[in-house]
Amino acid sequence: MAAPFVPRRQVQPRAQTGPHAEPVRRVLIASKNPVKLKAAQQALAQCFPTLQLEVIARDAPSGVPDQPFGDEETLLGARNRVAALGADASERGDLVLAIEGGVGPSAQGQAGPVECFAWVCVRCPVTGAESTSRSGSFALPPPLCALITGPAALELGAADDRLFGRQRSGQGSGTIGRLSNGVLDRTQYYVQACICALVPYMQPEYYGEPYGAFLGKKSALEES
Ligand SMILES: O=P(O)(O)OP(=O)(O)OP(=O)(O)OC[C@H]1O[C@@H](n2cnc3c(O)ncnc32)[C@H](O)[C@@H]1O
């Protein structure tokens, strides 16, 4: 009979103070939208409960329209944001995470509804490792679709504010929050997608060495 599989420990416990103390990992979030920051913080805390994390929000250009349309454009927006921050040597992030909200056709094509979703991209600037994940999606109702399409198309956040009579909804519960009667808000909606994108950094022994630099970061003394 094959020996039972025993996963290796991910993190060796280290002293909390002194020269061998667990080093602080600096994670850059490529947006100052509080919803995205909170979602990333919650996901990171759940994925790496034993690590000391410094999470910093920074503006980063997406290089795509403010309201990306389709998976390709939305994913590109997330990857561009991450690349912009990761390339800034002065930032010295151990990880960079971006969330890009998008709308687009469902897998049913023209026959299906316009859906809302997001792409998350996480990059380790030290090794160039990158991972991506797509959130779940939900159908937008016809009155919202009408506002986000056509020559006078609005961004989904602005369309939501107009239809539901709110302000800065995209920085609060989001469209998913309003449509689900609060069962799921935009923060929690993004937390799962962030966790999925962080998985390779939690399991570098399976995904490959470039994903291991984050967990394996050495303390200053070990480095010298
Ligand atoms: O500051 P940045 O990072 O650009 O954040 P943003 O929310 O404005 O930019 P996104 O490109 O991620 O989102 C595109 C639009 O979708 C809107 N939006 C509102 N509720 C949403 C929800 O539940 N899910 C996804 N997108 C939502 C959001 O307000 C934006 O107008």
TrEMBL record:
Needed cofactors: Mg(2+); Mn(2+)
One Pfam family from the record: NTPase_I-T
Catalytic activity as recorded in UniProt: ITP + H2O = IDP + phosphate + H(+); XTP + H2O = XDP + phosphate + H(+)
GO biological process, one term: thiamine metabolic process
Sequence ranges assigned to domain Non-canonical purine NTP phosphatase/PRRC1 in this UniProt record: 30-202
PANTHER family hit by this protein: NON-CANONICAL PURINE NTP PHOSPHATASE_PRRC1 DOMAIN-CONTAINING PROTEIN, PTHR34699
Protein's name in the database: inosine/xanthosine triphosphatase
GO molecular function: ITPase activity; metal ion binding; nucleotide binding
EC number: 3.6.1.73
Keywords: Hydrolase, Magnesium, Manganese, Metal-binding, Nucleotide metabolism, Nucleotide-binding
The keyword ATP-binding is annotated on this UniProt entry: no
Annotated transmembrane regions: none
Coiled coil: none
Ranges where the record places region Disordered: 1-22
Enzyme class: hydrolase
